């Protein structure tokens, strides 16, 4: 496994080249430029330990308003997409159980991400395929503000899917894999 800084650097390159470069998230560039994205590498593969890290990061965001968002990078333990989805479900329960519903939301990224109802090789999956499994904690209020100011925000997911499909799976895979 790569060292922590390499994992963070690869993630930053993916955000720059794929998320921002393909305009999958039209709000990411501002936060990256302002340096308000926190990166946390969690090397424990235990589900409960990772959920505790997730809760700790929510608490850290509570007390650090200058941090806009946190990306938890999970380089081991969640290689199987189904195992990762179990983690996501538990993380969403953590938000609810700890009074964070409506305060934070979790965005999901995984190397084998597959939207329900899509074939595994569909290029649309690359809108959420990252170099490593990740949990992205977003401030819900910030997301709402950004969406209010963005024209046709509801169309973002479909535009992303259309872009990825136009480029094709081979291109999208090459773009993502170049970040490693």
What does this structure look like?
With 180 residues, the protein is α+β, with helices and mostly antiparallel strands. The chain has one domain (4-177). The chain contains seven helices and four strands. It has helices spanning 4-20, 28-34, 47-63, 81-97, 140-149, 156-167, 169-177, and strands at residues 37-41, 69-73, 104-109, 134-139. Strands 1-2-4-3 form a four-stranded mixed beta sheet, sandwiched between helices. The longest helix is centred in the N-terminal third of the chain and has 17 residues, at 4-20. The chain is globular. It starts with a helix and ends with a helix.
Task: Give keywords.
180 residues; alpha+beta; 12% strand
SSE inventory with pairings:
Layout: H1 4-20, H2 28-34, E1 37-41, H3 47-63, E2 69-73, H4 81-97, E3 104-109, E4 134-139, H5 140-149, H6 156-167, H7 169-177
Parallel strand pairs: 1-2
Antiparallel strand pairs: 2-4, 3-4
Helix pairs in contact: 3-4
């Amino acid at each position: 496994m790569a060292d922590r800084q390499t994992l963070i650097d690869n993630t930053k390159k993916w955000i720059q080249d794929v998320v921002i470069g393909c305009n999958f998230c039209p709000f990411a560039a501002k936060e990256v430029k302002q340096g308000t994205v926190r990166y946390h590498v969690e090397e424990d593969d235990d589900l409960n330990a990772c959920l505790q890290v997730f809760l700790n990061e929510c608490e850290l965001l509570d007390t650090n308003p200058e941090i806009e968002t946190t990306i938890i990078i999970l380089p081991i333990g969640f290689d199987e997409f189904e195992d990762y989805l179990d983690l996501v479900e538990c993380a969403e329960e953590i938000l609810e159980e700890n009074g964070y519903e409506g305060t934070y939301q979790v965005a999901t990224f995984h190397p084998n991400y597959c939207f329900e109802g899509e074939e595994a090789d569909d290029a649309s999956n690359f809108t959420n395929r990252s170099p490593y499994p990740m949990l992205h904690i977003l401030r819900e209020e910030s997301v709402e503000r950004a969406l209010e100011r963005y024209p046709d925000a509801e169309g973002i997911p479909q535009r992303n899917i259309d872009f990825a499909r136009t480029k094709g799976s081979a291109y999208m895979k090459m773009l993502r894999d170049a970040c490693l």
